[in-house]
From TrEMBL:
Highest taxon of the lineage: Eukaryota
One GO biological process term: TOR signaling
GO molecular function: protein-macromolecule adaptor activity
One Pfam family named in its UniProt record: Raptor_N
Annotated Raptor N-terminal CASPase-like domain residues: 7-94
InterPro entries xref list: Raptor, Raptor_N
Signal sequence annotation: 1-18
Keyword Zinc: no
Protein name as it appears in the record: Raptor N-terminal CASPase-like domain-containing protein
Length: 101
């Protein structure tokens, strides 16, 4: 097979946003409360939904999973759930891999 006959398709997209909007950096002294236009959870959700809709325009057939400020364990579970089938898709072109039960 030559390089021109190989095509890759995006089947799964994980949008993982680690913004920590309401968390202050450790080296900054907080002077006064900043009046946000919306609450941190609502802002994070709005940013996530907007990115999701933008990515769907670029890859409309892909499956999307959105994670907003996940813990390390949640990110590991996401990769474990969806990463198992990726190897089979890339090597054989068939969907498969680990089954979630």
């Amino acid at each position: 097979m030559d390089k021109t006959s190989i095509t890759m398709k995006t089947g799964c997209v994980a949008l993982v946003l680690c913004l920590n909007i309401s968390v202050d950096p450790p080296d900054v002294i907080k002077i006064s409360p900043y009046p946000f236009s919306m609450a941190a959870p609502k802002a994070l959700e709005t940013i996530g939904k907007t990115l999701h809709s933008q990515y769907e325009r670029w890859q409309p057939k892909a499956r999307y999973k959105l994670q907003l400020d996940p813990t390390l364990e949640e990110t590991g579970l996401l990769v474990g759930e969806h990463g198992g089938g990726l190897w089979a898709e890339r090597t054989t072109g068939e969907r498969g891999g680990r089954q979630s039960g």
